[in-house]
Design brief:
By secondary structure, the chain is α/β, with parallel strands linked by helices. It is 34% helix and 21% strand. The chain contains 8 helices and 10 strands. A hairpin with a 2-residue loop joins strand 5 and strand 6. Helix 4 packs across helix 8. The longest helix has 18 residues. The chain is globular and about 45 Å long. The two termini are 31 Å apart.
């Protein structure tokens, strides 16, 4: 994958089998941007015909390659998240994805049958936090934007369990698309990482309003 930055793969691969299921996407220009961004998706879905592909550690990267760079299929979550970050309707998506990293949070494939999708459970979200911390220690992003707020419900307990210093708040001063944004800060060995949890952007998502919010706080 020519658009991929593989510099971190050795360190990231050490966590495969220890909670990490898929290697994150890391764009080829990630190291050179002024402020490193890690987008955090929620779940990977599969149908039974494609289960072997979905279980491969490179599946997240394959999805980005196929959807963004090869344009074989579209994913509204990917495009809406980028619009919210960039703040434009017409975006050079390929250029943006060259500059950012992307991690799927839930360490388990979710079954999709027709229009019905399996939903991750509380233990799935809890399990995602340890892998997330390991990935952040390697990639050292400055900002993480979570696509969805459910993971934040388990943030305080899991950071406490993992002995990771943090700050956390629900921003009740604003409600966007029926969601109160959540914000947090992690301190990982002196590296401070800001986290923002926004509404899942698959549907009923006002990307311009979320961009205005992100621009104010980041």
């Amino acid at each position: 994958m020519p658009e991929l930055n593989e510099r971190y793969d050795k360190a990231l691969s050490s966590y495969l089998g220890d909670g990490l299921i898929w290697l994150p996407w890391v764009g080829k220009n990630y190291d050179s941007v002024a402020r490193k961004l890690l987008l955090v998706g929620e779940s990977h879905y599969y149908d039974e015909a494609r289960i072997a592909v979905a279980l491969d550690s490179g599946f997240t990267r394959l999805c980005i390659e196929e959807s963004i760079f090869q344009e074989w299929w579209t994913n509204r979550t990917y495009t809406n998240a980028v619009k919210a970050v960039v703040g434009r309707e017409f975006v050079d998506f390929k250029e943006v994805w060259r500059n950012i990293a992307f991690l799927n949070f839930i360490p388990k494939v979710m079954l999709k049958k027709g229009e019905l999708c399996e939903r991750p459970q509380a233990n799935d979200f809890r399990a995602g936090w340890a892998s997330f911390v390991n990935v952040v220690r390697v990639l050292k992003p400055d900002v993480c934007v979570f696509i969805g707020v459910t993971a934040s419900n388990f943030f305080v307990d899991e950071m406490t369990r993992l002995s990771v210093p943090f700050r956390y708040e629900v921003d009740r001063a604003v409600c966007i698309n029926g969601i109160f944004p959540r914000r947090a800060v992690l301190n990982l060995g002196g590296h401070e990482v800001r986290l923002v949890f926004i509404k899942h952007c698959g549907s009923f998502f006002s990307w311009q309003v979320w961009h205005d919010y992100l621009r104010k706080i980041l």
